[in-house]
Amino acid sequence: FFSALSVALIAVYCGFNLLRLLPFPVPETLTLGRAFFVLALAPEFYAPMRRLAAAYHDRRAAETAAERLAAVEQASVASATVVPTWPEALPSIRFDSVSVRYDGQDRAAVSDVSFEVRAGTIVALVGPSGSGKSSLLHLLLGLAPLSGGRVSIGDHDLAEIGSIAPIAAWMGQSPLILAGTIGSNIALADPTASAERIAEVARVAGLSPMLLARGGLGAVIDARGSGLSGGERRRIALARALLKPAPVLLL
Predict the structure, then answer these.
(1) Closest Cα to residue 171, out of 201, 146, 151, 212?
(2) Rg of the chain over all Cα atoms, to the nearest angstrom
(3) Which residues lie closer than 8 Å to 103 by C-beta, 6 or more apart?
């Protein structure tokens, strides 16, 4: 606020000085060159204050995140009473009258949903924004509460297992991009994967044109994506999900 206000006051002073319209006496009058020089330097002069403001906001965001993470760590989560041994042939996943209601919410995010996902099939959840599609996927990963109904994976009850994360690969709507290379971002799903395997899932995910333009999987990107489009980010996330040796793919 003070940085923006100060730059604005300097601009006003320079402008009225050049027009000789200042309502008070000043020690000198500015030329166009000197006024332009002062205006160009003013934002740089106050840059440390802007950086301080950015650091302040980052600190507040970090403190809020730390409080939420602490609450998660302190929450009493019952340990899974069943540690399933998954067969090579994945069993079906069944939702029976499932409801999801988050803490502090007046209404359920999902109510009375029933369907079955058989092994080897693709099931699409279709609905308007906010209808609870992501909540159902989060439920399978143990990230959403089961408020009603039952979810079964073969002979196992999800309430006993807690999560199918060990056998599931996940691709969300806002993919995580870390500073590094494109290849290292894909390899987050399986750090032991070979370069050939990473290149194969990148090709399957449709990243070949982008990799050709950027110089391959070794192209360096920053945490902001280094100019990656939204579609390219999601293709990286898709390649990452395909790389994980998991029989269940949640998109």
Answers:
(1) 201
(2) 27
(3) 145
More confident residue, 87 or 229: 229
What does the pLDDT look like over 22-55, one tens digit per residue?
888 888 889 999 999 999 999 999 999 889 988 9
Rounded distance between C-alpha atoms, residue 146 and residue 158, angstroms: 9
In order, the DSSP letters of 36-58 are HHHHHHHHHHTHHHHHHHHHHHH
Paired tokens of 160: 């006993």
Rounded to 10 degrees, what is the CA torsion of 141, 143, 149, 155?
20
Per-residue pLDDT reduced to its tens digit, 90-104: 778 999 999 999 888
> In the predicted model, is pLDDT for residue 218 greater than 80?
yes
* Beta carbons of 118 and 247 less than 8 angstroms apart: no
- Tell me the one-letter amino acid at 151: V
**Which comes out higher in pLDDT, residue 210 or 85?**
210
Convert the pLDDT of each residue in 111-130 to its tens digit.
Answer: 999 999 998 899 999 999 88
251: tokens are 């998109």
SS3 244: coil
Q: Which of 169, 152, 171, 174 is nearest to 161 (CA)?
A: 152
pTM of the model: 0.64
Q: Which of 10, 1, 70, 5 is nearest to 37 (CA)?
A: 10
* Tokens 């994945």 found at: 90
Helix (H) / strand (E) element for 248: namely strand 248-250
